[in-house]
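user: Please supply your own:

assistant:
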Amino acid sequence: MQIHTPCGADVMRNSLCIYKHVLPSENDGFLAYGMGKFGRMEISIVMNSSLKFCKPKRERVNESERIIHAQFVRYGRNAREWLKKCALLLPRIEEKQIWRKKGFSSIYEYCAKLAGMSHASVDEALRVLRKIEDKPELLHIVETHGIQRVRPIATIATADTAAFWAEKARDMSKNTLETYVRDYRRVFLPREKIQGYKKTAEPRKTAAAGAPDRLASPQKEHIEMELDSEIAQKLLKLKGAEDWNTLMKKLLTEREEKLEQEKPQPIATKSRHIPAAVKNHAIEKTNGQCAYPGCVKPYEILHHTQRFALEKTHDPDRLMPLCKEHERIAHLGLIDHEEKAPEDWRLRRTHDPMHHKRQIDQMVWLYR
């Protein structure tokens, strides 16, 4: 019997190492073997019993074990570097049919046997490289960072914008780049559809030449909800003769007024520890979601929009819950009007090198 279960950050985050666990229960229940791979674990159950899963405990290694581990890490790093170089050769191998001339039945067999590349990774490499074959800046990113780093921008980059997107790929992780590209499409490419929304407004207009980058919002949006019958009836009574927009605006206004009344005072301190009252208020403002407009991810980081190093103050009005990706984008200086409410934030194409927060943001990136 096999059980596939997500491990999560508490067990093995992005682990590729093989583990052997004996997981005892009260009656010597079972023996389990696990292999962590990209945050998942496969467990083979020998005896049927209650499962108690725990994080593997770190142990001290001796000098010979440390050397073996260091060699494995170095070889693994080298293997990844060589796979990047192999991927860059695929378009020419496919074009010249080298795989056929060497006696292989397909390019997939050629790549699997000679480089250990999967069918999917070959397809993805060929697709991305065909998109960027005329963009040397992005090809250099593939060589230094791998195919996955340019995958989010392969379809959006042009010959004129290749240098712009190459800079973004160098500065951002893959996940942050994916988030930035998604927001960029919404702001600067009005014909792109926003997944999850049905637009009833006219297409947005991009910023005029010389105008600040703006996060334009549609006038109207269509949202569908599934509600219990009892809740639906109560809402219908509250709505009365008004339209739904008026009712929802009234409910949101009441909630905002209540939060404003309960808002704690800013606390000036040298400690980076955020007092519980300020922290809870900041999280409650967005119900634990990322504060960036249009993002529905759970928050991961409480972000000081005025930078704590500059003011040494935990201000509930300047403390915003953000997902990891939008917090990274903020520290790259790509969110304008941070001192205002999130609905007034504007996505930027480039950072302002003269902004007073720039030095702090650079120090944050050096620390990370």
Q: What stands out?
A: The longest strand covers residues 32-37. Residues 1-53, 192-216 have pLDDT under 50 and may be disordered.
